[in-house]
Amino acid sequence: MKYFYTDPLAAAFMAREYGVKLLACGEPIDEADIFYEYNPTMKIELDEDLIYVHPDSMAIFEPKAGDAVEIDRFVNDRRREPERFKDYPYSPTFCKIINTGQWLEISSPGISYSDTMGGKFHIPFKIIQRDDKPFFTPEVEA
């Protein structure tokens, strides 16, 4: 699987704030390259629209205690009764990760989830904040 950004500013922010290594057109780039290449006044763009995350940076996207995450409020209901909840729209709930030991614990007022850490999380979530700074989770190429 390859992880990528379609938003050059999100990619540049992650490179600057979290040290994410990036690739475009198969070559390493940094935040300065992104700002230069995507500067709308210069009418220059990279050959492709996707900015890929270098494999060395994948650990940055692992959850940490204290991360703010977005999860689907109906995630457990969709698992138990997929037919009943298939037409429910995505309903984001914002929570904080409490623990990332053997169990992933996510908590918010009135909501608490625990999930095993067996390599992959069963609760799909997106990290949106870390260390009181925005966090832009990349998209995944199938």
Give a topology summary.
Elements: E1 2-5, H1 8-18, E2 22-24, E3 27-29, H2 31-37, E4 51-53, E5 68-72, H3 75-80, H4 82-85, E6 92-100, E7 103-108, E8 111-116, E9 125-130, E10 133-134, E11 139-141
Antiparallel strand pairs: 1-4, 1-11, 2-3, 2-4, 5-6, 5-9, 6-7, 7-8, 9-10
Helix pairs in contact: 1-2
Written description of the protein model:
It is a single chain. The chain is of the alpha+beta class. The protein folds into two domains: 2-61, no CATH class; 68-141, no CATH class. Helices cover 20% and strands 35% of the residues. The strands form two sheets. It has a six-stranded antiparallel β-sheet, with no helix packed on it. A five-stranded antiparallel β-sheet has the order 3-2-4-1-11. Helix 1 runs antiparallel to helix 2 (31-37). The protein is globular.
Provide a compact summary of the structure:
The protein has four helices and eleven strands; from the N terminus they run βαββαββααββββββ. The protein is an alpha+beta fold and 142 residues long.
The domain count comes to 2
Q: What fraction, in percent, of the residue positions are helical?
A: 10-25%
The total count of strands amounts to: 11
In spatial order, strands of the major sheet run: 8-7-6-5-9-10
- Which stretches are poorly predicted, pLDDT < 50 over at least 5 residues? 117-121
Output mean pLDDT: 77
Rg: 17 Å
Element pattern in H and E: EHEEHEEHHEEEEEE
Report the end-to-end length measured between terminal Cα atoms. Answer: 6 Å
The structural class is alpha+beta
Strand content: 35-45%
Q: What's the story with the biggest beta sheet?
A: 6 strands, antiparallel
Shape: globular
Count of DSSP helices?
4
